Amino acid sequence: MLRPLRVGKVMLANNLLLAPIAGWCDLAYRLVVRSCGGVGLACTDLLSPEGLLRQKRRSLEMAATCQADSPLCMQLYGCDADRLSEAARWAEDHGAAIVDINMGCPVDKVTKRDGGSALLRDPDGTVRMVEKIARALRTAPLTAKLRLGWDDRSIVAPALAARLEEAGVAMITIHGRTTEMGFSGQARLDGIASVVAAVKRIPVIGNGDIRRPEDAARMIQLTGCAGVMIGRAALSQPWIFRDTAAYLSGDPAPPPLSIEQKCALMRQHFDYMQRFRGERIAAIAMRKRSSWYAKTMQPCRMMKEKMQWIGSRHDFDAVLDEFLEWRKHLDADGVRRDAPAPI
């Protein structure tokens, strides 16, 4: 089930994709995921065409890339065909191997401006918009990420996917929920399968609720999708692509990361953040991001609490060093018998 994936003229090493997780998918995080192995394509955070074209600092930070961050998909959101076309060309000129249009974000601040999954409410207008963007690109293929529809009364994804293929889209990613569902309930595999059946030639990538390698295999088996996109699970397990690649290939499972290796990955993440955005921003960002790593490092209450007060690399290292020293004395049940956790 693990195999190379062709998107237009771009050949990806495999069919495992990192989702464009809003607020998380900056260059530092993408490099951490890539260092663990197994990812075929990584995507930026949602990028504002206006922010890129006006050279706004925050947008440029979100779009920043480097040679090691390849192949890269830059995802744009909005509804203005002219500005999206200009931004698509900008992305193509600044390191994007693939350009994606977000048609799946359910967040109010995006949909209230007629972007994200609000595009599903106007299929005709969306197709015209995509035709224009596709014509603007020179070499990078255009892709689209959708939800099933706005709600259960308007499941438009299968029909829209077929029209987008004819309009020039080279790949569809489909999240198996409606906008109205948000992230509640379960991703609908039958909905993903209906999109797979609707297109003729282009690959369809399934997305939603992939928390373990077994979930990826099940989605591919039950829907016929060409690959999977993983989002939230990768926040706490950047190595999930490595493990999923092994599982889909029928290879032995890689050894689980030790606490020491997970802490080393956190240090690497801080290093990247500091290199690209400075020590102060890195410390502030890692206060929150460390809580995601902590989900796989229990018991770690003391580390999570102390991370909320870090202001420098020295503070960050001191918390991890203290945590590792404390963890050395845990018994097999994860309980320290000789002393309580540091306060």
Overview of the molecule:
The chain has 343 residues and is of the alpha/beta class. Helix content is 45%, strand content 14%. Helix 8 links the parallel strand 8 and strand 9 (204-207). The longest helix is centred in the C-terminal third of the chain and has 19 residues, at 259-277. The radius of gyration is 21 Å and the shape is globular. The model has no long low-confidence stretch (mean pLDDT 94).
Give a quick precis of the structure:
The chain is 45% helix and 14% strand.
Q: Write down the secondary-structure element order.
A: EEEHEHHEHEHHEHEHEHEHHHHHH
Major sheet: arrangement of strands: 3-10-9-8-7-6-5-4
Q: By CATH's scheme, which homologous superfamily of the largest domain applies?
A: Aldolase class I
Radius of gyration: 21 Å
Mean of all residue-level pLDDT scores: 94
Task: List the defining traits of the structure above.
343 residues, alpha/beta, TIM Barrel, 8-stranded parallel sheet, two-stranded antiparallel ribbon, 15 helices, 14% strand
